[in-house]
Write a structure and sequence with these properties.
mainly alpha; 2 helices; rod-shaped
């Protein structure tokens, strides 16, 4: 009877050791994966900041006005070109 109890306890202890080892391994694997994802997040945030700066540079008022003048041959309307429409129902 005592031998059977000892064998059961031995199996339980070995099983517990294997479970702890597996749990620790899984925890380390997930931590490494978390660190990789955090690095990727940081890189994407840096790229997002660069893209926002680039968009701001491309969308400046002076640049848009210059392109409208040079490429599209647009100009500011003169006072005689402006027509004001009234929506009064009189």
């Amino acid at each position: 009877m005592r031998l059977a109890a000892t064998l059961v306890l031995l199996v339980v202890v070995v099983g517990s050791a294997v479970a702890v080892s597996y749990s620790k391994h899984n925890s380390r694997r997930l931590f490494i994966q978390l660190q990789a994802l955090q690095r990727e997040r940081d890189q994407l945030n840096i790229e997002w900041g660069r893209l926002q700066l680039e968009q701001a540079a491309w969308a400046t008022h002076g640049r848009i006005e210059r392109i409208a003048r040079e490429r599209l041959e647009m100009r500011m309307p003169t006072q005689s070109d402006v027509v004001i429409l009234s929506l009064d129902s009189q």
